[in-house]
User: Fold these one by one.
Assistant:
Number 1:
Amino acid sequence: MTEKEQKLFTLLEDCKKGKRVAQKELFDSYKGRMYAVCLRYAKSREEAEDMMIEGFGKIFASLNSYNYKGSFEGWMHRIMVFTAINTYYANVRHNTTVEIEEYSEENDLKIPESNIEYNVLLELIQELPEQQRLIFNMIAIDDYSAKSVAEDLDMPIGAVKREYSNAAKNMQDKLRKITT
């Protein structure tokens, strides 16, 4: 075990024992990266912060299930993504459903070669309708397959592909407007 792996192992074991100093250290070490994940799925910075806090609660509650195989950060990332999905579904229960438009395979996202700042791209993603934002992030950013997204969201794969296509077309249109 490398020194870095040993340090992480010790930190996680201390977190499992409920040591607040270790929990704060873990939170401080990963909060920026996990907030960035949540921010892509959220409608606002406040919602992203709520998602992140909820996600960290789930992480701390689930530490005993982490088996030290694979990336710990990847394990945390997955929890944050599913926290975002749960937030989406909680919001859907309180809102009307989104219409699913026609699917076109030619709507794959093509980002123009330019120096678009991260914050501008993030704002464009946040402007997408909720379901499109969720599916776009999972496929385009977090590299889930359409099949995996369909299973995770309990949706027909055709609906996932349509929503992704619509999201990609919306992003393409938005990018075209700011780069021309």
Number 2:
Amino acid sequence: MRTDQIIERFGGVTKEEPLTTLPKDMVLSNTQVLESVNPFFGYYNDGPQVKKKLYVYLVLESHHPYELVVRATEQVKKRFRHSFDAVPGCATRGNITCQVIRVKDIKNFGQVIQLQELYQAEGIKFKKNVAPLKKEMTLIRLLKFFLLEPNEGGLYMDHLQKNVGYFRIPEFIDWEDFKKLTTQVKFETSLLFFDAATAFFSENCQLVSLVRIYKENITPTQVIPIKDRYLRLLG
């Protein structure tokens, strides 16, 4: 695809994954970092077992403005000797919600402390005394920019993540209703083995509601029947 056909949008993703607290010797003293032990849970929990990338969540103290986190990330990337991706968000377990920075594309857990130190130097404060988690399903909301390759029928492929596609839906769906809907979609056995999340982006001063699909080596042709099944059930 030509680069002039790629569109940039700002929005977010909501998903649910099991999180586990990293051991104390892997993180800065008196802080908490969570690992997504099964990222893209709906795909890897049901489908093939392959080596998965590391996804960690730096748990923050109180509220940090979006701009502060993004600018801090820009500065950390200048000083960190390896590439990584980081976006702000929040993680909710029960009635407790904590602000987080989701970090991916790090090579190993040994890089976590260095990242925390660099973020601290940029004014980011980490939360203390949080109850540890062990493979506990957690609702995660992330804010991020998308680089998308438009396809026909309200379908988009992620330009940076080859395993991710999106499609438009006519209205917002809350997470609990979306989980039930996804279970119904997967009753169509030919569509098994994908992870689904809700998403949105801003366009023409409005929020566009989306479904995000993850599947190894997914193509637009594979997204279309999943999209059609969701839209049929939505009526």
Number 3:
Amino acid sequence: MFNYSGDFPFLWDEITLPIKYGSDYRLARTLFEQTLLETTGDYSAKAKTSWLGLIEQYRIDPTELDPRVYLAADDNWITLRYAVDYKRHRITKDLLFTRVLDDIQRSQSRVALASATVHLVEAPELKVALVRSQGTTQS
């Protein structure tokens, strides 16, 4: 159990997106950064002010609170990281994901979500043999 209503009423959240190989990752970054700023920019500014108070009170190190888009060459190419008011966590994530899907759709297939796909080229022949209790076999 965590108490997020204390000295710093914000939390860092992330949305990880599997971007299809061959997508325009520069366009994806630009679109998602803009969406992050428009959606979470107010939280970021308020979190910075709150964090400054924590730095003075507890002598902790400064940290990055601006929304960021990170790229990684792995199964999930893009991660959106942002600070959000703990009370608005779920609704903000829903809003962000909806806007990201809108961004992807507006990209006219230049950015696409990836998914696991299995392609069967040819199914092998399947033979089944039934064994009766008297020891006879049927095919």
Number 4:
Amino acid sequence: MQPTCENKYSRMTNADFLDNLVEKITTTFDDKKGINHIKGYNLPTKNEIFAILNDLLELVFPGYSGTKNYDITTIHYSIGTLLSRIYSELFQQITKVLHYNCEITDCEDCNIPEMAADATEFLLESIPKIRTIMKRDVTASYEGDPAAQSFDEIILSYPGIRAITVQRLAHALYSKKIPLIPRLMTEYAHSETGIDIHPGAKMGNGIFIDHGTGVVIGETTMIGDNVKIYQGVTLGALSFPKDESGNIIKGMKRHPSIDKNVTIYAGATILGDITIGKGSIIGGNVWITEDLPPFSKVAISKGKQVVKKK
């Protein structure tokens, strides 16, 4: 006769199990630790933001998405229709995040419709300027990469161009102090390209990010014209100043300023509120935390970091 095994533990029914689990989970909603947003209606809708972003990219590089074809005789109508849709959808999302911002700051006198319209119009009015700058960025990529065969190849496939374009669009909203949306835009580009550029960074013309994987550019970074950056470069903060209560002081300049015509090779780390002078060449895998005068050269030689200042 086979021995029988008796279950010494009585199991709850599925309903009891779920009821108990619901209670445990919802209890954690009351701890005010900031990782739940019950009134989620004032948060931006991520998928809608990404759809708007792709429409904005269509304005910057019309015809390259493969989803729209244009005819020169009807181009005004096509672009007008696209602009109208972007305006409506972007205005709605900006209105939501401004309501959200007023909730967390206890603001009661903001004219949210006017602020939303101003930010929406500012971004859309920036498109011609962004297109002009992006022409220089694409040219810099073409002239800086011997493997580049055409502008079309660069626009369609180079991650650096995509990340830079998105950052320029996001920066327009960032400059208008729009919360959440600019960061969603650049993090979307980050997830696609491996290039992390904060929307607050200020970038000049003719920027070329080659390969790009692992590039990190912090919020208060300033990059001059005709700067070339290779993969794995970090332009970051050396330390975070704190107030008397030990809280990080936000809004201070804490990232590098890269002057024009600088080349930064793969794996270089440049930290803190320092300046890299124009025309400098920063070799791979170096670590820099001090100012460099113009036309400096930094490299690793025989296991040591060597700085040559001109």
